[in-house]
Write a structure and sequence with these properties.
Blueprint lengths: L1 E7 L2 E4 L18 E5 L3 H11 L6 H4 L4 H4 E4 L2 E12 L3 E12 L2 E6 L4 H12 L7 H39 L3 H40 L11 H66 L15 H23 L4
Parallel strand pairs: 3-7
Antiparallel strand pairs: 1-2, 1-3, 4-5, 5-6, 6-7
Subcellular location: Cell inner membrane
Membrane topology: Multi-pass membrane protein
Catalytic activity: Mg(2+)(in) = Mg(2+)(out)
Length: 334
């Protein structure tokens, strides 16, 4: 699907008559943004003919080399960044979005639907954002994407604070089954937090590289963004730096929570092993006594003693109770 936007009074407007892919929209504002969502081959050919450029395929966008994500071709800049989008189940995915800047027109190629794109279209359509062309749309769109990443980090911080309190509640809980269930839930939530934080950090780094490449003078294109946009780009790069540092701080907190959870699991396992060890030590002396008097030698005087059997039972009970009392006195068992 292709949606073509123009600008009126600094606001974004969708241009009519976009069902016909054989020609550019006629009348009204000039196109400044062509948004391609899951484009078909016909739609790719339409944009290629309209702008005289080659549209990268989905496989090209997946390339991880910097030279494949940031490059100049046919007088246009091709900039690919990872943008987050939510998926069912509370998870998130990082998928590439390619931004093409050419002749004051922005082209975006994407195969997923980040919420930030919808927010930007709605916001830019309701109020003037000072949009004048493709460069201004590019910077304003990335501002919304960065704001969305900041909101995700803030939400993750609140969830991590909740996880911290949950860990220490688990540690003070004496209910064994509840503690085990909570630890399992805790590890699941820590795994989700690490995944989310890692994807945010990855997206921030990719956007930083895109902005750095966009503002650098390029042979044949010059700086891709207007001077008025460079001030906004400088602010965005400062925001990206602070958000990256924040994401690293949260990554350290996630590692702390993981270490704390694993420590609680180790403590729980040690408690179980301690119980088995105490039980084994308590029954060791009675077992020794029973083994001695279970031997089949001909000469064992105690076997013919009238009180031998009660005495052996008493000795086994005493030899079991004394270690138990010793462990209890030392506080090794509750």
């Amino acid at each position: 699907m292709i949606t073509i936007y123009g600008v009126e009074a600094g606001r974004l407007v969708a241009l009519p008559g976009q069902d016909d892919r054989t020609q550019a929209p006629a009348g009204g504002p000039a196109p400044v943004w062509i948004d391609m969502l899951f484009p078909s081959e016909d739609e790719e050919r339409f944009v290629e003919a309209l702008l005289g450029i080659g549209i990268p395929t989905r496989e090209d966008m997946q390339e991880i080399e910097i030279s494949s994500r940031l490059y100049q071709e046919d007088g246009a800049l091709f900039l690919t960044a990872l943008v987050m989008a939510s998926v069912p189940g509370g998870l998130a995915e990082n998928e590439p979005v390619t931004f093409v800047l050419i002749r004051n027109i922005l082209v975006t190629i994407r195969y997923h639907s980040p919420r930030s794109f919808g927010v930007f279209v709605d916001l830019a359509g309701r109020q003037s954002m000072g949009l004048t062309g493709g460069g201004a749309v590019f910077t304003a769109l990335l501002e919304v994407v960065i704001d969305r990443l900041a909101d995700i980090l803030e939400g993750e911080r609140l969830r991590l604070d909740g996880l911290t309190g949950m860990i220490f509640r688990i540690g003070s809980d004496d209910t064994t089954h509840k503690r085990a269930a909570d630890l399992t839930e805790m590890l699941d939530r820590i795994g989700l937090a690490e995944d989310m934080n890692g994807k945010v950090a990855e997206s921030l780094r990719s956007i930083e590289r895109v902005l750095g490449f966009a503002v650098a003078p390029s042979p044949g294109t010059g700086a891709a963004l207007q001077k008025v946009d460079l001030v906004r780009v400088k602010t965005m790069r400062q925001d990206l730096k602070s958000l990256s540092e924040y994401a690293e701080t949260q990554a350290q907190k996630v590692r702390f929570l993981l270490d704390s959870s694993l420590g609680l699991i180790n403590i729980r396992q040690s408690e179980i092993i301690k119980v088995f060890s105490v039980v084994a030590f308590v029954f060791l002396p009675p077992t020794l006594i029973a083994s001695i008097y279970g031997m089949n030698f001909d000469f064992m005087p105690e076997l013919r003693w009238q009180w031998g059997y009660p005495a052996a039972l008493l000795a086994m009970v005493v030899s079991a109770v004394l270690p138990y009392l010793f462990f209890k006195l030392k506080g090794w068992i509750k």
